[in-house]
Write a structure and sequence with these properties.
Diaminopimelate Epimerase, Chain A, domain 1, 2 domains, 8-stranded mixed barrel
């Protein structure tokens, strides 16, 4: 049989968050930078995202990373991040999974005990340090693009809830950060559905009431994630906190969320609660962990910010070939609101 499309992917999870990394079947897409390539895919090539992420091949709790050649002189490769509803400039969990797949499948050479290289994400260049032993990528530390705060203690009006204080920060995506305890949440698994429902309402209200535009790239704009955070507590290992991020169209990130952690670090630094050189152990709703460290204070086009590093681990779970039969009636798949919450204007 002659298939219309065949795409090879490596399944990887980090902290319980499922990603897939495309390793074959897509040669390249137009664009000089990864941001250009992401824009082309979003506007002219979105059938690939729909083919892989919509049912019957995909699912709502999944992301896909497309590895592509990079024209950046300092990058070993580039990647574009595709989520259920949209493309994002940067993602920490997707970075950790992509690095693990590239190294453990031999697409990039692995060196023990440490492998170093750069990847180009749509948001910019990301430095990679991978701890490698006996062919296994044991952990990945990435130096993220700069993170910064848009607003602290911003009051918004959320339908059905009323007035709410949020912080707004960028860590590779733009987040509304909410004190979970102030709303009666402990960030535990049985609260998942309630957190998702409220988090989507908060995101929609915040996006309308708190305009946010990246000072160095106006095409990165609008709050698109809600992060619920717990108290920071002192432990023998260092400062620690829980968090969970609501990913549209309505589910929780299973991992501690890398870009969300960077946004949290930026807020804590702006409040004087975390200094340069300090780290935060960030736990997810299922107990998986990333470690975030403030590496430096920086200026982002006139806005104070930080450079942060995130460390986490990933594990390969599967190797797949997705194919499209020419007679398949669902070449770009479908979504149903029993599993995919319907969009709300």
């Amino acid at each position: 049989m002659r298939f219309r499309r065949m795409v090879n992917v490596v399944g990887v999870h980090t902290g319980g968050e499922l990603n897939e990394v495309i390793t074959g079947g897509v040669l390249d897409v137009p664009g000089a930078t990864m941001f250009d390539k992401m824009t082309w895919l979003r506007t002219q090539g979105d059938d690939l995202r729909q083919f892989l992420l919509n049912e019957p091949r995909g699912k709502v709790s999944q992301c896909v990373n497309l590895v592509l050649p990079s024209s950046h002189p300092d990058a070993a490769a580039g990647f574009v991040i595709m989520e259920s509803e949209y493309y994002v400039p940067m993602s920490g969990s997707n970075t950790i999974c992509t690095v693990t797949a590239l190294l453990e499948t031999g697409m990039l050479p692995m060196q023990a005990p440490v492998t170093r290289f750069n990847l180009e994400a749509p948001a910019g260049l990301v430095g990679i340090t991978a701890d490698c032993v006996d062919g296994k990528c044991r952990s990945v530390t990435f130096a993220n693009v700069p993170s910064f705060v848009f607003a602290l203690d911003q009051i918004i009006d959320v339908p059905g809830l009323g007035r709410l204080s949020i912080d707004v920060a960028y860590g590779g995506m733009i987040y509304a950060l909410v004190d979970a305890g102030a709303l009666g949440f402990e960030i535990v698994p049985h609260e998942a559905r309630a957190l998702v429902e409220l988090g989507e309402r908060i995101k929609r209200a915040a996006a309308q009431q708190c305009p946010a535009v990246h000072p160095a790239n106006a095409e990165i704009h609008t709050i698109n994630q809600t992060l619920f955070y717990g108290k920071v507590v002192a432990t023998p290992e260092g400062k620690r906190s829980r968090n969970t991020v609501v990913v549209s169209p309505g589910r929780l990130d299973r991992s501690p969320c890398g870009t969300g952690t960077c946004a949290r670090l930026a807020v804590l630094h702006a409040r004087g609660a975390l200094a340069v050189g300090e780290r935060l152990i960030h736990d997810s709703i299922i107990g998986s962990t990333y470690v975030g460290t403030i590496a430096a204070a920086v200026d982002v086009a006139g806005t104070p910010g930080i450079c942060a590093t995130i460390t986490g681990s990933a594990w390969i779970t599967a190797f797949h070939q997705y194919v499209l039969d020419p007679s398949d009636p669902f070449p770009t798949g479908y979504v149903l609101p029993d599993a995919w919450p319907a969009p709300v204007d």
